[in-house]
TrEMBL record:
It comes from Pseudoduganella lutea. The keyword Transit peptide does not apply. Keywords: Membrane, Signal, Transmembrane, Transmembrane helix. The chain crosses the membrane at residues 32-56, 63-82, 88-105. This is DUF3325 domain-containing protein. It comes from the Bacteria.
Length: 106
């Protein structure tokens, strides 16, 4: 369960960081806009995703697992932004919500 929570939060964080770039904003929303909040939110979610990893597996293994989940999340966002960028506008918030709810319930 903790693995899915870390993966969900990592996916949402990578989506926010990628959507802070003008190129990806144009792909998803059709226009670019100032996105400092997305960039800061993405970095904050990256830090938040580290907390359940450390809580589940300890410091050393938790950080290593977190880095692995970040890799998978970046791959998933990269593939989604390449082949189907439009659904990111609803998949990222939905996955972030599921990760947060799962973390609260666990």
């Amino acid at each position: 369960m903790k693995a899915l929570i870390v993966l969900a939060l990592s996916y949402a964080a990578m989506a926010a960081v990628s959507l802070s770039m003008a190129r990806h904003q144009e792909q998803v929303y059709g226009k670019a806009f100032p996105a400092m909040a997305l960039r800061l939110g993405g970095w904050a979610l990256l830090a938040v995703a580290l907390v359940p990893a450390i809580a589940a597996w300890g410091t050393s293994v938790g950080i290593l697992a977190w880095l692995g989940f970040l890799t998978f999340a970046a791959l998933a966002i990269g593939l989604q932004m390449t082949y189907a960028p439009q659904p990111v506008r609803w998949t990222a918030p939905a996955v972030a919500l599921l990760g947060a709810v799962g973390w609260v319930l666990a």
